[in-house]
Design a protein that fits this description.
Blueprint lengths: L1 E5 L6 H10 L3 E6 L2 H9 L3 E4 L5 H9 L3 E4 L9 H19 L5 E7 L24 H8 L4 E7 L2 E3 L6 H12 L2 E4 L5 E6 H14 L5 E3 L3 E5 H12 L3 E4 L1 H8 L3 H4 L8 H7 L8 H6 L16
Parallel strand pairs: 1-2, 1-4, 2-3, 4-5, 5-6, 6-10, 7-9, 8-12
Antiparallel strand pairs: 9-11
Length: 303
Amino acid sequence: MRVFVTGATGFIGSAIVRELIDAGHKVLGLARSDAAAASIAAAGADVHRGSLEDPESLRSGAAAADGVIHTAFIHDFSNYAPAAEKDSRAIETLGAALAGSERPLVVTSGTLLLQRRGPLATEEDAAIPSFPRKSEQAVAMASHGARISVLRLPPSVHGDGDHGFVPALIKLAREKGDSAYVGDGLNRWPAVHRLDAAHLYRLVLEKGSAGASYHAIGDEGVPFQDIAGVIGRRLHVPLVSKSPDQAADRFGWLAHFVGVDCPASSKLTEEKLGWQPKQPGLIADLERGTYFVTEQTTYAGHS
């Protein structure tokens, strides 16, 4: 299968490219810069120049492929609503390009966006309509005549090269001289290793059902205090609790996420696709120490 991948040079997207190539697929990677094009070519994939803001590049990329995996997203938290709108338009463009065919489109969403009805968020839970990111609403708009599946990622996708929430927490702990959590720190974050997530993207591409949602969950819920605890031990700084009122000053833009209790399950995904996470969990990955060897880039998104 020839697969068009947006976000092909990102933390997750680059792992998906390798997963697809190793499985015998051919990859066409979206590149918005010369550096991205060089990285895609070095990975053994074909280069397709364009961006999320160039609908024609998305249409032509989808037209040249047997399937599409959409991971690109502009993670600008200071302008999140416009970024979410661009994502929605990109999904609608890709869906329209594939309409009337059996070619699959795998769209990225998140478990943080769900209306959890039980103790764990499941694949059957619906997205929160008021959340700024409208990936799943865009899927509903684009699904007429297209085979679209949704893959939901947890707040923490970890592994070597991570530039997401955990490196941002580490950077903040270095700057502040302590590692903090909110309240009792027992709120839980689900997590998955990037290589396990990449494997699931391939399975959804190959075997996913139209209109279905799938969860990439390795850890159903890691207590935030445990995450802060590893950071504190590794950096040799004290572990401290902050009140909800103190969270905004302490965490900045991260305050929206550090206190959230959002455990999630991938049981239905595992049953339907035979996916099993095999990589280390989040705490084991942190305990390896690679997150603390050099200060990693702060959050720039998975695209």
